[in-house]
Amino acid sequence: MRKVIAFSVLWLSLLATSARAEVKTREIEYKQGDTPLKGFLAYDDAAKGKRPGVLVVHEWWGMNEHARNQAIRLAKAGYVGFAVDMYGKDKIATHPKDAMAFMQEATKDPKQLGERFQIALDLLKQQPQVDTGKIAAIGYCFGGGVVLGMARSGVDLAAVATFHGHLSPDAGPVAQKGKVKSKILVQTGSADTMVPKAQVDAFKKEMADASVDAKVIVYPNVKHSFTNPDAAKAGMKELGYDAEIDKKSWAELLKFFKQTLGS
Question: What are the tens digits of pLDDT across the range 124-173?
């Protein structure tokens, strides 16, 4: 009888430990000026001590399930992931026309874009699980352009990484020697017509001229949006999910973070 009771206690203890190990998530509502925004935080509640924090900037569709999933992936890998909102609360597109309109509205004022990023960065640093000395940012598609823009502007980030991200500086500043504090990883596809080879080559030259520590990985025959399982739903021939490259590029990100964040 005592053995049965002891086994039951052990089993319940294991169940409780397992429950505590779940990734915790919560939505955080905040504002930039009069614009309400809604982000998504994810972390492993069982992890001990503080750990690096990573901002996730969404594709041109808005802060949708794809962005949330990346925050959760980061939490499972030992980071605190915060998917930020660059458009406004519940502004999520499913049609390219709407996505373009949201993106143009968000980028028409670079100052506003920078403020939205900075507010999210400050929120991430306020989380008790976060080591404020180890902050990174990753971006997808539109979000890739955003995080690179922040790096070019000299925002204090240890690491910046993009997946099928826009690489041109456009209206923002080009990288200047001594200005960029971040180490950079860019992952793109050779068949990405939205980020053509000329743009990739120009980015490489810009980073080299500014003496920025930047690594560019180009995956052969891979289209834009290769990390998003829902890419085909948009009905755009330019987009295409690639499960193998999604997995491979995520492994490259974690290797990059280990080198730059020490975790």
Answer: 999 999 999 999 999 999 999 999 999 999 999 999 999 999 999 976 78
Which residue's entry shows tokens 């990390």? 227
Say if residue 169 is exposed, middle or buried (CB neighbours under 10 Å; 0-12, 13-18, 19+): middle
* Assigned domain for 7 exists: no
Tokens of 48: 């001990």
For residue 1, tell me if it sits in a domain.
no
CATH number at residue 119: 3.40.50.1820
Q: How many domains does the chain have?
A: 1
Of 44, 48, 49, 46, the C-alpha closest to 79 is 44
What whole-number distance in Å separates Cα of residue 161 and Cα of residue 164? Answer: 10
| Start-to-end C-alpha separation, the chain | 46
pLDDT at 261: 95
Q: Give me the sign of the Cα torsion angle 144, 149, 152, 157.
A: negative
Q: Are 174 and 199 in contact (CB under 8 A)?
A: no
Give residue 16's pLDDT: 43
Residue 70: which domain range?
A: 23-261
In a domain, 18, yes or no: no
Residue 180 lies in a domain: yes
